């Protein structure tokens, strides 16, 4: 069950990270509220998940999911730049997440 928590915590991390951008410095109240709620939920799920796997493994997977998803959706929704180098680095993040999980 810990890995399910980590997965959903990672998805919520994507939500609050993008919410930080969309809130325009917390000047948009509804988006700010969404950002704070998703951040709290993400941290709560991560705290529940960390009861079982090693803390470093859980944190690495959580932050990797968040980083990967935030970069990818930043490209889609905020027209962040795309380059072969950026895409290659995203693949390395995925490889790192898989590697940390396999070797834990």
Topology:
Blueprint (H helix, E strand, L loop, with lengths): L1 H21 L6 H21 L5 H24 L5 H19 L2
Question: How would you describe this structure in keywords?
Answer:
104 residues, mainly alpha, 82% helix, 0% strand, Small_drug/metabolite_transptr, Small_multidrug_res, transmembrane, transmembrane helix, Guanidinium exporter
Please, could you describe this protein's structure?
This protein is an all-alpha fold and 104 residues long. 82% of the residues lie in helices and 0% in strands. The longest helix has 24 residues, at 55-78. The radius of gyration is 14 Å and the shape is flat. 24% of the residues are buried. It comes from Alcanivorax sediminis. It is a multi-pass membrane protein. InterPro entries: EmrE-like (IPR037185), Small_drug/metabolite_transptr (IPR000390), Small_multidrug_res (IPR045324). This is Guanidinium exporter.
Rg of Cα set: 14 Å
Main sheet summary: none
Q: What fraction, in percent, of the residue positions are helical?
A: over 70%
Mean pLDDT: 95
Shape: flat
Number of strands: 0
What ranges have pLDDT less than 50 throughout 5 or more consecutive residues? none
Coarse structural class: mainly alpha
Span of the ends, CA to CA: 16 Å
**H/I helix tally:** 4
Q: Spell the H/E element sequence.
A: HHHH
Q: What percentage of the residues does DSSP assign to strands (E)?
A: under 5%
* Structural domain tally: 1
Pfam families: Multi_Drug_Res
Organism: Alcanivorax sediminis
Keywords: Cell membrane, Membrane, Transmembrane, Transmembrane helix, Transport
GO molecular function: transmembrane transporter activity
